[in-house]
């Protein structure tokens, strides 16, 4: 199968990630069958899609009217309707290995042998999921980053039995719908993005735990230095630009002093035990009383939309 052979998309899950991936395909011209377990879930997903369309239109990111885009999306709770003669399936359901395995086994009973199957898991092993499939060679991870309608990156991750052609085609499709797809050579826990994110978070919390700086100071230092630089030039290229001899010398004395805990961070664990989960409960390392969280999310999304418009205009 080639990119030109993909005409119909099936989107499993209409939730936070699923509605966004469905919209991404529909905006880029693909008929999408949106599958979920209930009419209520589907209606909530379509409401979220309509909200995102309004946001995109206000940002100047759409080239068709809303009705044309929405007409490409067919909500259904029927597996046969969603999966018969579809070309590409993308799944965004609960992050539970057993549930995903069960769903994908059911999917395989409806699709053609050459249909590409992609899971939008953020860290579960593609090898473990594909181990229950009849045709594991056409199964792959396509990890969208949240919020999926605004973040460009998609990590394409093979399992042990995934064909290289499946990786290549999935990467090409993700790029075709306007994402920035990056394929990995092999799977790893957390893939790449989450490994780097958790490595940075581990050191950030270590700095706070050690009394070196406050959470606010750590966040400001990242936002106004590494955050800006890495959005333009990644960490490895930055090392090249700064001089590998310089970074080598720093590593000789600094690596040994960095946080290297193999278990969960005690301060993080205590926050969770106290139900201080961040924005969702109103308290975390910061207090989120009132509309502070909503304002930060709104500003973040506004800035991400600006960046998407810049990408589109290039």
Short summary of the structure?
With 314 residues, the chain is α/β, with parallel strands linked by helices.
Structure description:
The protein is α/β, with parallel strands linked by helices and about 325 residues long. The protein has a domain at about 5-185: NAD(P)-binding Rossmann-like Domain (Rossmann fold, 3-Layer(aba) Sandwich), CATH 3.40.50.720. The chain is about 50% helix and about 10% strand. The chain has 13 helices and eight strands. The chain has helices at about 20-25, 40-60, 65-70, 80-85, 95-110, 125-130, 165-175, 195-210, 215-230, 235-240, 245-255, 265-275, 290-314; strands at about 10, 30-35, 75, 90, 115-120, 140-145, 155-160, 180-185. The chain has an eight-stranded mixed sheet with strand order 3-2-1-4-5-6-7-8. The longest helix has 22 residues, at about 290-314. The radius of gyration is 21 Å and the shape is globular.
């Amino acid at each position: 199968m080639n990119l030109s052979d993909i005409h119909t998309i099936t989107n499993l899950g209409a939730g936070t990630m699923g509605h966004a991936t469905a919209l991404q395909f529909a905006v880029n011209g693909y008929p999408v069958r949106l599958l979920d377990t209930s009419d209520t879930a589907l209606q909530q997903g379509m409401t979220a899609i309509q909200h995102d369309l309004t946001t995109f239109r206000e940002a100047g990111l759409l080239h068709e009217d809303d009705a044309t885009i929405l007409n490409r999306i067919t909500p259904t709770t029927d597996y046969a309707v969603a999966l018969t003669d579809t070309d590409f399936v993308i799944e965004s359901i609960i992050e539970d290995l057993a549930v995903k395995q069960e769903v994908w086994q059911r999917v395989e009973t409806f699709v053609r042998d050459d249909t590409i199957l992609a899971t939008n898991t953020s860290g579960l092993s593609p090898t473990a999921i594909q181990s229950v499939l009849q045709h594991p060679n056409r199964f792959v991870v396509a990890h969208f980053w949240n919020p999926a309608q605004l973040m460009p990156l998609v990590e394409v991750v093979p399992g042990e039995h995934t064909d290289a052609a499946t990786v290549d085609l999935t990467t090409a499709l993700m790029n075709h719908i306007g994402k920035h797809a990056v394929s990995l050579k092999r799977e790893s826990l957390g893939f790449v993005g989450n490994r780097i994110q958790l490595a940075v978070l581990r050191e950030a919390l270590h700095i706070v735990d050690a009394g070196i700086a406050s959470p606010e100071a750590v966040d400001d230092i990242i936002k106004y230095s590494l955050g800006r630089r890495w959005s333009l030039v990644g960490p490895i290229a930055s090392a090249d630009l700064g001089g590998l001899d310089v970074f080598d010398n720093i590593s000789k004395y600094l690596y040994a002093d960095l946080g290297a805990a193999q278990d969960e961070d005690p301060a993080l664990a205590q926050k969770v035990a106290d139900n201080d989960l961040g924005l969702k409960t109103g308290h975390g390392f910061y207090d989120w009383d009132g509309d502070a969280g909503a304002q930060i999310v709104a500003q973040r999304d506004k800035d991400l939309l600006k960046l998407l418009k810049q990408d589109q205009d290039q």
